[in-house]
Amino acid sequence: MSSLIQKFNKTFGADMAGPVIAFVVVMVIFGLGADNFLSLGTFGSVAFQLPELGLLTLAMLLPLLTGGINLSVTFTANLSGLAAASVLQAFGGVDASGGAFVIAVAAAVATGAAAGLMTGAAIAYTRAHPILVTLSMMIFLRGLGEFLTRGGDVSGFPSYMEPIGHGSIFGLPIPLLIFIACVGVWQVLLTRSKLGFGLLMIGSNVEAGQYSGLNTRRIIMLVYTLSGVMCAIAGIIMLARFNSVRIGHGESYLLITVLAAFLGGINPFGGFGRVLPVFVALVVLQLLSSGLNLMGANQHLATALWGVLMIVVMAARTIVSSYFASRRKKI
Amino acid sequence: MMSAEPLLSLKNIKITFGGVRALKGVSFEVNPGEVHCLAGENGCGKSTLIKIITGVYKPEDGAEFSFDGQPITAMTPSMAQSLGIQVIWQDLALFGEMTVAENIGFQYAVSGKYGLVDKRAMEKAAEKALARLGVSLDLHLPLKELPIAQRQIVAIARALVGEARLVFMDEPTASLTQSETDYLIEIVRNLSASGVAVVFVSHRLAEVLEISDRMTVLRDGALVGVFPVEGMTQSRVTELMTGRNFDSAVIAADHDDQPVVLSVKNLSRANEFDNISFDLRRGETLGVTGLLGAGRTELALTLFGMRRPHSGEIVLDGETVHFGSNREAIRAGVAYLSEDRLSLGLNQPQSIADNLVMASLDRILSSGLISPPKKENVVAHWISALGVKIGKPEDPIRTLSGGNQQRVAIAKWLAIGPKILILDAPTVGVDVGARAGIFEIVRKLAAEGLSIILISDEPPEVYFNADRIIHMAEGRIKATYDPRQMSLTDLEGKVYA
């Protein structure tokens, strides 16, 4: 048993244990409890719902790893979506050409990046706490978005947008493929790039990073800019899925992204964490909500259970680590 | 002082952790009112012994334990407290936001009548404790506004409130300047005169010899012996602690035939240092000493590009440089080992490997990405080159001893391929034995042609390891010395004058 655990830790990392155990538990409970849980239908619903929350969680992940947070992820996403929508509308709405789509995507990414860069610069140069800066940004973006849309929906997009939200390639939903590609990019960024190395280092000690020659301001600005870009991708997916843009779309995802990150073993104080456990944690959250849905439970109950799951995982982590600590002492 | 009955007596103390005998049948005695030194390198069992005395750990069967003539079968932390055994750990465990009175009279805050805090009783107790030490402090000042030496006093005063009869002080002078240390020593004398026994745990041998009556030396969990301090020399104590004999000899040599690598001309920064000029040649070690606040670290940070000089010139390899940041300095081959290893020099929670490559990432890239095999090679190379003792490179660096951490910190800078290595207080928190190891590395690096600036407030370190010594005081160069033309006592006299 212990050698199995060691092998698992070596391959996936110890932080993978929590999400994987939660995954197995959820699969077993719903597999036994709901007749049609282990079906393509469940897979389909999870696969389509996962990417929105997933992309926003990726946007949240980098700031969390630096010991910060980005509270403006959902509004950055929707404002980026709004930028894309405006471009499409300007080029004829439903009749907009493929070229217009490219410009729309560029506009969305530029909007997300600009919002992120502003946030990052404010944090890097004023040294204000990221909670304060991104809270201000969140309120600013929401206000700006509501002002621009008069609080309503913007809709009427060309039909080729639909597959981005609902289409599949070889049976795999396109949003899921986009999300998995983004997970891959983040994985490489965190494990192999200088930026990833630097952001983890300053996550646990900014000053030690400075004294070793890391450009901490540049790292912070890049982190929030990339977070904004990831929001923009989420914004485009949401635009395509709802076939409309509304500044308040997915507002409730904000704190769930933080939850998913912590469930995936991200250190709340920064400096430590990996993408893959977060990915598994996201899958678990979606499975939980889809399974309850299948059993006919109220959707709000699913949200409540997400909270319970988090507490259970935290408690389990404490118990497991103290068990290993006591064993280590005896060896 | 020579009462027949020891206050504390331990015999045959054994304890095992994880299959390792941490204490191998140690005995330890403290007389009433005595100042006793507990000496030994890190990991020799000093802290474990203190934790047994205060009931945190249980010794194995066969131990004999008595306090004030009464045999004690099972010590507990609360029993230790009520017997008047107090420990002041190095981190002091004080509350920065609370006032002096609140810190000293803390137990009144948790045990007042009706669950209320009795402020008057608290202040009275604080005043009494401070008076006993012969000190007066503003009781209402928040602790964080006091210098470290006075916080130390507050910690001692708090121990006295608990009617202490035996006080252990763990590395009390580690972060103090010479004058603050003198002040503390005076306090300890007062304490001892009022009948409280003090056990001093310290690395700094000079003050141990000055203050203690007797010393107990531990090595690798075993008792080396109990010695009267009178007639003891520093080198003898080092030998007892490490079991090795460190021959100290001046290594200073001329480097006039070597090219000048760094030339500092009239460098100044307002309120920090003024008109500093010196040359550093290839393979030369320049010692910089002086009391804390002499401007040494500020000068080093300016050479390292983290501060801008207000006037003057830094010439590196014949070219005047204006570093905009330490990244430019690093690229130009200037490395700076911080005096504060815990928060600035190393990233304590992160791995040994990551700490080691932190400054030299560009050297382990392959098509723009960090190459794991290159990283592994670099880490393995330096770990073996500097003889760092580690478990796995992935372990957090905080799991290493001070000496091994410092070796990794040095390796981090060697990995950039520096021309100049500035070592700021490289032996702070490093054991006596491990210090010798660090200086062995420094000498070897100098012999290989690296130019080194060695900053230390301990004159013997620069005296025995530098080719030339700059004496800084109040931001200016007071004098430049050649170790070959003076004795260590001369140097110490000048620095402490």
TrEMBL record, chain A:
Which keywords describe this protein according to UniProt?
Answer: Cell inner membrane, Cell membrane, Membrane, Sugar transport, Transmembrane, Transmembrane helix, Transport
Q: Which GO terms describe its molecular function?
A: transmembrane transporter activity
In terms of InterPro entries, this protein maps to: ABC_transp_permease
Topology class, membrane? Multi-pass membrane protein
User: Which CDD domains does this chain map to?
Assistant: TM_PBP1_transp_AraH_like (cd06579)
Location in the cell: Cell membrane
Q: Name one GO cellular component term.
A: plasma membrane
Kindly list the residue ranges recorded as spanning the membrane: 12-34, 46-66, 73-94, 100-124, 131-149, 169-190, 219-240, 252-269, 276-297, 303-325
Q: Where would you say this protein principally sits, based on its record?
A: membrane
Put simply, this protein is called: Simple sugar transport system permease protein
**Source organism of the structure:** Rhizobium wenxiniae
UniProtKB/TrEMBL annotation, chain B:
| Keyword Nucleotide-binding on entry | yes
Asked if the keyword Chaperone belongs to this entry, the reply reads: no
Pfam families, A to Z: ABC_tran
Q: Which organism is it from?
A: Rhizobium wenxiniae
Q: Which residues form the ABC transporter domain?
A: 8-245, 255-497
- According to its UniProt record, which protein family does this protein belong to? Belongs to the ABC transporter superfamily.
Any single GO molecular-function term of the entry would be: ATP binding
Report what the protein is called.
Simple sugar transport system ATP-binding protein
Keyword annotations for this protein, in alphabetical order, are: ATP-binding, Cell membrane, Membrane, Nucleotide-binding, Repeat, Sugar transport, Translocase, Transport
